[in-house]
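Quick one, tokens below:
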């Protein structure tokens, strides 16, 4: 691999990062707050490619011998091809079923609207239900969106995966479902659940972590959200 090929690869990788950062593709890899760093990395790689090409042309104007780098440098093509050809799906029910809930006690709870249905994240509901005994949730209509996972006993959970940094460290927060549950539930189906708070609790079969129940009154399939990960529990 000569300098020209290296420059081309660096440029291609940088352009791919820019494309990912300017679309929702980057959300498959890192949390939304890291978008500026993804874009910056793309700009730096493109600038490096341009500098490498300029340096090589300047050198070859004085020296007509082309120097080749070790063949192992062709491995640089692998991350480029992976980004271009393979857009990994967001982590779903398989990961959730094999990973214990990551629910942790929040530092506090934000005020909720006094009237109307409450639209909450999975982690927000779970935190309030477990660590605030549902004080702000009682007698309120709740709307929560997540994907379905089933444990080995067939118990259905509504789940969102949360990120600390990137998809590699994603962990689930789970809500067990009771009440008017659809008779057939497929793992990885995204649902908007309308329901009510219930003080019922269970333990995650993987790590014995606390899992609250939600009493379902209505369940509606919805498309996968553009950002399938939930960051509200670790911001």
């Amino acid at each position: 691999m000569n300098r020209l090929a290296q420059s081309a690869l660096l440029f291609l990788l940088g352009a791919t990062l820019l494309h990912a950062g300017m679309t929702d593709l980057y959300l498959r890899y890192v949390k939304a707050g890291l978008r500026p760093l993804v874009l910056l990395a793309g700009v730096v790689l493109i600038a490096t490619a341009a500098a490498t090409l300029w340096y090589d042309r300047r050198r070859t104007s004085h020296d007509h011998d082309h120097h080749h780098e070790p063949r192992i440098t062709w491995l640089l093509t692998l991350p480029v091809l992976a980004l271009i050809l393979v857009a990994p799906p967001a982590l779903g029910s398989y990961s959730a079923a094999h990973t214990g809930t990551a629910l942790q006690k929040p530092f506090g709870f934000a005020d909720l609207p006094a009237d109307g249905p409450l639209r909450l994240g999975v982690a927000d509901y779970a935190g309030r239900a477990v660590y605030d005994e549902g004080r702000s949730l009682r007698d309120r209509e709740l709307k929560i969106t997540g994907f379905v996972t089933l444990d080995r006993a067939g118990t259905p959970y509504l789940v969102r995966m949360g990120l600390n940094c990137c998809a590699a460290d994603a962990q689930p927060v789970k809500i067990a479902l009771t009440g008017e549950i659809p008779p057939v539930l497929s793992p990885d189906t995204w649902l908007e659940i309308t329901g009510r708070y219930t003080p019922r609790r269970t333990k995650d079969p993987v790590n014995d972590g606390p899992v609250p129940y939600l009493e379902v009154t209505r369940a509606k399939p919805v498309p996968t959200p553009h950002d399938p990960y939930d960051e509200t529990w670790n911001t």
